[in-house]
Design goal:
This protein has 281 residues and is α/β, with parallel strands linked by helices. The protein has ten helices and nine strands. It has helices spanning 7-19, 35-47, 65-70, 75-84, 95-98, 117-120, 124-139, 151-164, 195-216, 221-233, and strands at 2-4, 24-29, 50-55, 89-91, 143-147, 171-175, 238-247, 262-270, 273-280. Bound molecules: adenosine monophosphate (AMP). Adenosine monophosphate binds at residues 29-30, 36-37, 39-40, 146-147, 149-150, 175, 177-178, 185-188.
Length: 281
Amino acid sequence: MEIFKEIAPLRQRLSKLRSQDKTIGFVPTMGALHAGHISLVERANKENDITVVSIFVNPTQFNNKEDLEKYPRDPDADFALLEKNSCDIVFAPSVEEMYPEPDTRVFSLGSVAEVMEGKYRPGHFNGVCQVVSKLLSIVEPDHAYFGQKDYQQIAVVKAMVRKYMPNFEGEIVSCPIKRESDGLALSSRNVHLNPEQRKSALLISKTLFAAKEKADSGATQKQIRDFIKQNIATDANLCLEYVEIADKDTLQPIAGEYPKNAVICITVYDGKTRLIDNILL
Ligand code: AMP
């Protein structure tokens, strides 16, 4: 496995591989890697000759300074895990390498980026678009893999690529959520949970699974929303930030057939840790 910290030598290496007709799969991450990230690496390995993983905690997507400072970082463990899982190339740049000068670009993507995470984390998706557009331009992958754990992020990235990167020839690939055996969605932020909060966190996925069953057997959107709110409120550690039932493609209130075209997205504070999860109906 090769590790690059700078853009120019990485691009040289990739250009050589491309000239040998190698296809490139790319998995952008912020490190603190877990089995969720590895599921994307496995998919990239399966579908491409070369797998590139980036590790970069992107400051411009954090709307909260404390969250950025607290974000878990363990590059050596990440490199070891990637090596074990047949990653070929790691790109782990510094902030100065990625942003030699401040990135002042403003991405205007309309409603898909304004609801849910867009509303509760102002500036977040603009930062995501800044870093993802740079990374895709640097790596120029044939396929770039994103997890449905960050459901809205995939819709935003696809919209960004369509509007701002018309010459990008790769494909944005959406991959299923990897969960713990008890249902909790894997997240780098789970390390912040103490054992009691970890128990509480389980209620989030349980509630989503139960909500899906109710929707499948005819419950209305209001019934589902009320059920989720009431369920989350039963645990003193949990505080619901929002729950939305949205069109799975536009993320707006459902225009198509319900529940078939819907996704439920939820954000819950578990103590001070902000957890997101979602389920397709
Ligand atoms: P992050 O390091 O949290 O920015 O995540 C990097 C990529 O891994 C994103 O595309 C995430 O959606 C994806 N990811 C994170 N957690 C999971 C998970 N539990 N299952 C599948 N993909 C995930």
